[in-house]
Amino acid sequence: MLSELLQGTDIGGFLLIQDSCTYCGRDLLKSFIEAALNREEVIHVVGFDVSEGELKDGLKSSVFQRLHFHNAFADPLGWTDNSPFTVHQFSSSGLTELLNQTAQSKPATLVIDSLSWILRHVSPTAVCHTLQQLKKGGAVRTIIGLLHEDMHSRGIVGSVCRLATSVITVAPRTKADEGLAKITRRSKSGKVVQDEQIFSIRKDLTVTVLSKPTNFGRKQSNTEEQVDPTANLTFNLRLTDAEREAKEKLALPFVFSTEKKTALLHSGPGSGKILYEPDANDDYDQEDPDDDLDV
Amino acid sequence: MNLRHYVTTNMAAPMSSVDKTPAECLQLNSTSFQKKTRSKFISIPGTRPSVQNGQLLVSSGVTSLDYLLGGGLAVGTVLLIEEDRYDSFSRMIFKYFLAEGVVCRHELFVAAAQDDPDDILQELPAPILDDVAIHRPGDQPRMSCEPQDTLDAMKIAWRYQNLPKVQSALASSSRFGHYYDVSKIMEPEIRQAAKWHRFYHPEHPPPSSGTHSPKLESYSALLKSLQEVIQREGFDLNAPLPKSRNILRVGLHSLGSALWGDDLCCHDNPKNVHALTSFLYGLRALLRSSLSVAVVTVPSHLIQDRALMGSITRLCDNAIALESFKGSERETNPLYKDYHGLLHVRQVPRLNCLASQLPDHKDLAFKLKRKQFTIEMD
Q1: ∠ CA(A202), CA(A204), CA(A207), 5° rounding?
Q2: pTM over 0.90
Q3: Alpha-carbon B31 to chain mean position
Q4: B16 within a domain of the structure (yes/no)
Q5: What sign does the dihedral B354-B357-B358-B360 (CA atoms) show?
Q6: How far is CA A197 from the centre of its chain?
Q7: DSSP 3-state assignment of A290?
């Protein structure tokens, strides 16, 4: 499922990568950016957590003209007078304006690094509003966001996850270069699919999906075998083939020929049909013999 | 025995009805008992009186849920559904409720902040309708050329072959509770025949005046809009009712979530801690004096404050909570392998009586099959 998400076929969706201090999700975020750049998409990155250089490190330099980095790392709270991007510009109107500044033919992919920074300075309800409006509006094709789940309370993380169409939670594995991804995907019809995969990211930011972790498959091995009720009896309940044939050949009583059956089933339009609906007075109880007594 | 039940007024109802004697109250008061006389019991399609206390009931769309709630949802009450983690099953029940309204020809009022109400209505499940067997000439050649056992042809009970498996017809809305096929969408003709009103929160921007009231603007706007619909369309019991009465089904999706502007789910000590509770109080007062039923879904798994969740539950009449197994460790538990989740009944209403009808069994699990949402004893 991770590879499907990397292919980015989700239009109008919101992909959320949740990480924690034990495993950084930025490498996975960069792989998503790389995959999108390779698909000739226009990417706008709003960077609060890391600087431009650090984010672009590892990405192929040939595709940088399609990657627009909005530097929110330098002065996000607007302490100097000319800040390139402040956290208060993170609203649907502000972002749409920003996206329209760079002329583009098709809607762009918006990458937010990271939502945690914004959530500490803007109220969660406003952030959720903005994300919802961006999802609905046409200026943005998909939104990919990074959230550090250990920085916020469960309620805030839950509220943001509700808006997301896919959530990837990354966790470390015993081997240093591998990570465990728990993916939850919500389709438009409301169906929720979950998966767990082990992945590793190579130097060129391509993701290789390794096998599923073993404890996820435990569910399958625990299924009981179907108990066969005809076994272990003192009498024989099974049928051999010959016996089955003989059983089917047996003529049942009240079996009419097919012509008589059809004649009885499709009686002509003149036959009477009794339609009876029991009304309130008609409450008869078959077990009560005194029901007709007027006591 | 012929019990006589008298009209009582509910405390949350507006003050004007307290002055009236029972005889002056309207024949059909949604919170009163019905006097057991033979005369003019005006029936509204899609409703039936409860066998326990004579309340007027509507079906919630899920027949097993109707059974749990004592026959159905009483008119004038609120059903609170605590959502499951991914809002899949609560949304399904929400859609069943609205679909039942369309099939019974009730009016609908849908309010949502996340999805457009138009989109929610487009996704309603198709009702399973089977016309009563009519003699179609096309049937006969089929019968004669297929004498062998097909799935439909029965060998021993062949007289019952032509009867439909599920008997219901759209025209006869005297049937209470329908079944829906989740894999199909309700046909546009059926859907468009229904009258409905919408409230989509992004379309109502809050006024710029920053008053510090305990209510949130989003909830006040919603309550005002609902009150206006009730009064305009004639569902209000205080006003003279039009000749043909109908029920208004109110569906409020995901109240309390961040998209309504409420920070109940986001903070442990929310600023607007009384916003949702005062809204629910006002909603219940509005419903008690009108011919309407409401279903409210709340993402309770995000609300950290259990005391707040308790007061929200007490402010609604019926309350159920859905807990889906997806993603939790219960998914692999062999005890639960046939089911999709657990259903907890948090509260049953005590409408005009001292004790409420409690369900017999407390361990309930639900399963969403294609044609039925079943709730079973675990």
Answers
A1: 45
A2: no
A3: 17
A4: no
A5: positive
A6: 15
A7: helix
Can you read off the two tokens belonging to residue A289? 């013999």
Domain range holding B181? 47-126+176-377
Whether the per-residue pLDDT at B300 is higher than 50: the answer is yes
Asked if B265 and A132 come within 8 Å (Cβ–Cβ), the reply is no
User: Is position A237 within any domain?
Assistant: no
Contact A129, B259 (CB under 8 A): yes
Number of domains in chain A: 1
Inter-chain contact A124–B258, Cβ cutoff 8 Å?
yes
Average pLDDT for residues B231-238, to the nearest whole number? 86
How far is B149 from B61, CA to CA, in rounded Å?
36
Reported as a single tens digit per residue, the pLDDT across B46-89 is 888 877 777 888 998 888 888 888 888 999 999 999 998 888 89
CATH number assigned to the domain comprising residue A90: 3.40.50.300
| Amino acid sitting at position A253 | P
Residue B26 lies in a domain: no
CA separation for the pair A98, B251 (Å, rounded): 37
Which letter does DSSP use for residue B295 in this model? E
Q: Given a cut of 90, is residue B2 above it in pLDDT?
A: no
On chain A, the residues whose CB falls within 8 A of the CB of B155 are 252
Q: Which of B94, B60, B63 is nearest to B74 (CA)?
A: B60
The residue with tokens 């590879």 is A3
Residue A155 and residue B302: Cβ atoms within 8 Å?
yes
User: In this structure, are residues A163 and A127 in contact, taking their beta carbons and an 8 Å threshold?
Assistant: no
Answer whether residue B283 is part of any domain. yes
Residue A222 has pLDDT above 60, yes or no: no
Whole-angstrom CA distances from B310 to A38, B81, B307, B315 are 52, 13, 5, 9
Considering only CA atoms, which of B90, B266, B253 is closest in space to residue A160? Answer: B266
- Put simply, the chain B residues between 32 and 91 with a CB less than 8 A from any chain A CB are 86-88, 91
DSSP A276: -
For tokens 């409401």, what's the residue? B294
- Sequence-distant (6+) residues with CB within 8 A of B172 are none
Name the phi and psi angles at A142, rounded to 5.
-140, 160
- Among B158, B159, B326, the residue with its CB nearest the CB of A194 is B326
The CA distance from A198 to A178, in Å, is 7
**Which own/partner contact pairs does A230-239 have at CB distance under 8 Å and 24+ positions apart?**
none
Tokens representing A160 are 């943001």
The token pair at B43 is 């029936």
Number of domains in chain B: 1
Chain B residues in contact with A153 by the CB 8 A cut-off are: 266-268, 304
The SS3 call for residue A234 is coil
Tell whether B64 is covered by a domain.
yes
| Interface size between A and B, measured as CB pairs under 8 A | 101
Q: Which CATH number do you get for residue B220? A: 3.40.50.300
Domain that holds residue A88: 2-213
Contact by Cβ (8 Å): A145, B255 = no
pLDDT tops 50 at residue A197: yes
Say which residues have a Cβ less than 8 Å from residue A176's Cβ, sequence separation at least 6.
none
What is the mean predicted confidence (pLDDT) over A169-181?
87
| Residue B271: closest CA among B299, B308, B298 | B308
Whats the size of chain B, residue-wise?
A: 378
Question: Is residue A249 domain-resident?
Answer: no
Determine the Cα–Cα distance for residues A144 and A265; give it in Å rounded to an integer.
63
